[in-house]
Every structure is written in structure tokens, then in C-alpha cells.
Design brief:
This protein folds into two domains: 160 residues, Rossmann fold (3-Layer(aba) Sandwich), CATH 3.40.50; 117 residues, 2-Layer Sandwich (Hypothetical Protein, Haloacid Dehalogenase-like Hydrolase, Chain: A, domain 2). It is globular. Strands 5-4-3-2-1-11-12-13 form an eight-stranded mixed sheet. Strands 7-6-8-10-9 form a five-stranded antiparallel sheet. Helix 2 runs parallel beside helix 12 and helix 2 packs antiparallel against helix 13. A hairpin with a 4-residue loop joins strand 3 and strand 4. The relative contact order is 0.19. By secondary structure, it is an alpha/beta fold.
Length: 293
Amino acid sequence: MKNIKAIFFDIDGTLLTSQGQIRHSTRCAIETAQSQGIFCGVATGRAPFEIQRLIQDLPIDVCVSYNGSLVEMADVSIYERTFSPERLEELVEVCTHQKRQMIFETRTKKIGSFAIRIGHTYPFSAWIPVLSKWFPLEKVTKLFSYLKTKRLSRGVRQMLDQQLKVYQCVVLTTPSDEASLHQLEQVDVLRSNPYSVDIVPKDGNKIVGIQMFGRFTDISLDEIMVFGDHENDMGMLQAAGIGVAMGNASDHVKAVADYVTKSNQDDGICEAMEHFGILTKTKKTLSNGLVGQ
């Protein structure tokens, strides 16, 4: 059995249920791990300023945000990677030419498409997997391509003129229409939902952020456990000592994991932590009895 010293959780579809809640069993499992001296953190494509609202008062030791482009621990920045001004100009030019909705994310705000910003909020974001079945992705992205506004252009232009630090760009695009984005140099393109991709500076993905945490704390990847459910989690699921895919993950995400647990709706985090000996059956039984959902 591996000696796990840190555990990282994706947020959407993993730490949170489809209703945007944290199961009580998950909360108890994390508190138990921390009582054993295990660091517990999040590894997410979300912005740092929205994470606390999503996880509420869940005790978290380290935050890997923007798909690994920013790592913070106790309000101390361990690592950050931002776009160069030239790369930002190229992103704006390409997305504008292709009539793509886009947002750019700084440490404190999102700049750009109102539609994408709304899509990042609960309960709307929780409905994305369902909406993608009802509304064809191609038609939705084509519709939004006609919603460009002068306000969007002004906001992005001000961002470029002020040379703000930008950690991530989110672009509305279908899986079949993202090939041109992969041609961009010095960036990684990561899909976190059916409607959009996250574009981050090269080597700014989640596993790089987790590695930077490991260097800071002298913890190796083999001593780290991770939980995830989507394509942008695949790198960390493959590289960590233990990679756990949620039961609600797609088949190709499950295929790269060391273990597949129950879904985010059904105590999946708690079950996996018991399976690997981090959480005892006694603790799990107690936490299940306290689930308030």
C-alpha cells in the first residue's frame, strides 16, 4: 500500500455533486485524512476567486487553479505561469477571426464573453452534461458566434493594453472544431466540458501544478492521490501515485485511472479512500450516517 501524503480533488463532477453540493461523507473523509497529516487540496480549471464560494467552508490546504497555472498554499503563491503579451495577442486574433466566444482569466476576474461567464456558474454549469444531449453542440456554438459585442472587444483590448497577467483562456468550441486551436504554439488545450476548452500556457496543466506543490513540500508524485472525472484530469490520473476516476467519468478517462470509484452522487470519494486504507470502515459508516442529502 502506498504511503499517501497528499490528495487532490477536481471540483466539478468530483468534489461537487450535480447539484453543486459537497456530500457530508466527502467532508468527513477529507477531515479524517487531514487529521492523519495528509494534505488535501483541489486541482481545478476554476479561478481561485470562485473556488471558496464553490467549496464553502471545506478545509483545503492547497489550491491548484487554472488547470495548474497557479498554485497557492496558505495564501502564498508557490507557482504561477501566465501568457506572454505576444501569445495573448495571437489568441485574441485567432478567436476573433474564427468568431469564437472567449474569456480571459486573471487572478481576480474574467474578461470577455458574458455567455461563457454565465455558463461557469451553478446551477447552469451542473446542467451542461444534460444540455449537451438536448442541444447539438455545433448549433449552440454557431449561435453564440453571432453574439459578439463591442463591449467584449473593448474589455479584451483594455486587457491587452494594460498587460494584465492572464492565466487561462476559455473558448467556446466543439470537439470536432477545436483542431485549429491545437495548432497554436506554446499553449496546452484542455477540454473540461462538451462546449468549451481551457487554453493555458504550455506546461501549465494540473499535474505540473501538483508537481510544484510536491517540490515545495518534498512530496513525490508516488505519494500523491488524485480524483477526477474529465479529460483535463487525465494527465494527473496517469502520473500520480494513485489516480481515481469517478464513476460518472467517461470511459476513456476511466481507462487511464488506477481505480474507478462510485459517482460524485454516491459517496465515490469516501469509497475510494476506504478502499486504499486512508479511511477506515468505522469512519465511513459514521460519515454515511451523517449524509444530509
